[in-house]
Amino acid sequence: MPRIPDERPLSPQPGIIDELRRRLPTASVLSTPAELAPYECDGLTAFRQRPMVVVLPETVEQVQTVLRLCHAARVPVVARGAGTGLSGGALPLEDGVLLSLARFNRILHIDPDNGTARVQPGVRNLAITEAAAAHGLYYAPDPSSQIACSIGGNVAENSGGVHCLKYGLTVHNILRLTLIGIDGELFEVGAEALDSPGLDLLALMTGSEGMLAVIVEITVKLLPRPERAQGLLAAFDSVERAGAAVARLIASGITPAGLEMMDNPAIRAAEAFVHAGYPEDAAAVLICELDGFNAEVSFEVMRVRELLLDAGATEVRTARDDAERLNFWKGRKAAFPAVGRLSPDYYCMDGTIPRRELATVLKRIEALSEHYGLRVANVFHAGDGNLHPLILYDANVPGELDKAEDFGGDILELCVQVGGTVTGEHGVGVEKLNQMCVQFDSDELTQMHAVKAAFDPHGLLNPGKAVPTLHRCAEFGAMHVHHGELKFPELPRF
Ligand SMILES: Cc1cc2nc3c(=O)[nH]c(=O)nc-3n(C[C@H](O)[C@H](O)[C@H](O)COP(=O)(O)OP(=O)(O)OC[C@H]3O[C@@H](n4cnc5c(N)ncnc54)[C@H](O)[C@@H]3O)c2cc1C
């Protein structure tokens, strides 16, 4: 089944474009085909749709105006940050307004004493760390897209990154949000303090994929830069051994700042791309970063080296200096574009599994790769059990995209089968709607629809994304779910 947004009847209201032009500065409303083209997709480029109109407001009042107009005319609205999302969350709607927050790009205040910053949603993730550096502080969650992605998008997706193993996801690194509801009402959730009374609406808003409200300001936590960061790179002759080493390392009580794994196809692609000196014959490498006070890091480096060698590493390198540590990361951070050179197209999946299942799941993915006749490279946040299989395909070969999608769907269902989830950090968007039917039963989905309706009774904010309709699940379930058990058609079993 193609992963398209849930169907809804279209109700084009072209009159709203004139109304928007009357209320916003001329340069803030785009509607010609050439102006709309750059907004027709996000990072999930297989899905494209031009919006009816794009608006680029610059003030909170302008966002309120747009939402009030859309609310009154019952026009759907899709918020957009930098458009780097990988699950189609910012995919526009043919009869909808695309609300870009790109011009909300100011860091409003840095409070070094409290370790916080107030920022607008269009600020780039990395720009927060750059601005905080003068105070010896940084913003911990670091998606690989951090040079481009916006903090508003990070909140809406609850994004993760290499350092989230030790420091938590976006939800653990924000304190307060200012939002605007579909009726134009401005409201705040969370507080400057670590806890706030009442229901935890901050957590509810984080990861809500633009379905509940539009974020217009964020208070983030800033952390002191660690005194020292040390990198290690371990090679393994089997993926299973590398997976088992991850579980042992975490169980030892040491929490690395980052612990990432790449399998052989990913190692070779990254090496060819950035020449980081990776062992190209290894079946898998683990890249581990330890940070903290000098003495603590020295002790942990010794322990981690022993643990990795004990777990069967064929080689463990300790970075001699910061340049070598960054070199270890260079290939990992560039792994997606590097893999992009192996094939005309790739499809990046994102699922999470319990760490103990790493080896089994990687074996199953290998078998699925043979079953579908599509190559796959694995790059992932191993410490978190967050997988990113990159499925290689050629969109110009008829049927390959469909095969890649089915392959990806099977991987996500496999994640659920072993006790994991269908998303680790990239969100559901349009991509994983079907797998949400596998993860949740109809009662749970009904509750999610009820929460959405409480904030957005007419279903105007990013409709058709993130939470599937029960109708869709009924259709999909007839194919894949039987007495609550997943059936994998013609898949090899282990
Ligand atoms: C090469 C590459 C590497 C990546 N690596 C990672 C990674 O390591 N970890 C990770 O988590 N992700 C990663 N991503 C995915 C992506 O960068 C993140 O999901 C990011 O948070 C999206 O931010 P954005 O500003 O581009 O949001 P967009 O793509 O514009 O939007 C994403 C979602 O957020 C909603 N949204 C955006 N802004 C707002 C707002 N102000 N108010 C309400 N809703 C809003 C949109 O409606 C949409 O549903 C990667 C992407 C690429 C292309």
From TrEMBL:
Gene3D superfamilies listed in its UniProt record: 3.30.465.10, 3.30.70.2740, Uridine Diphospho-n-acetylenolpyruvylglucosamine Reductase, domain 2, Vanillyl-alcohol Oxidase, Chain A, domain 4
SUPFAM superfamilies: FAD-binding/transporter-associated domain-like, FAD-linked oxidases, C-terminal domain
The protein's required cofactors: FAD
Keywords associated with the record: FAD, Flavoprotein, Oxidoreductase
Highest taxon listed in the record's lineage: Bacteria
InterPro entries per record: FAD-bd_oxidored_4_C, FAD-bd_PCMH, FAD-bd_PCMH-like_sf, FAD-bd_PCMH_sub1, FAD-bd_PCMH_sub2, FAD-linked_Oxase-like_C, FAD-linked_OxidoTrans_Type4, Oxid_FAD_bind_N
Transmembrane segments: none
Domain FAD-binding PCMH-type intervals: 47-225
GO MF annotation terms: FAD binding; oxidoreductase activity
Protein name per UniProt: FAD-binding protein
Source organism per UniProt: Thiohalocapsa marina
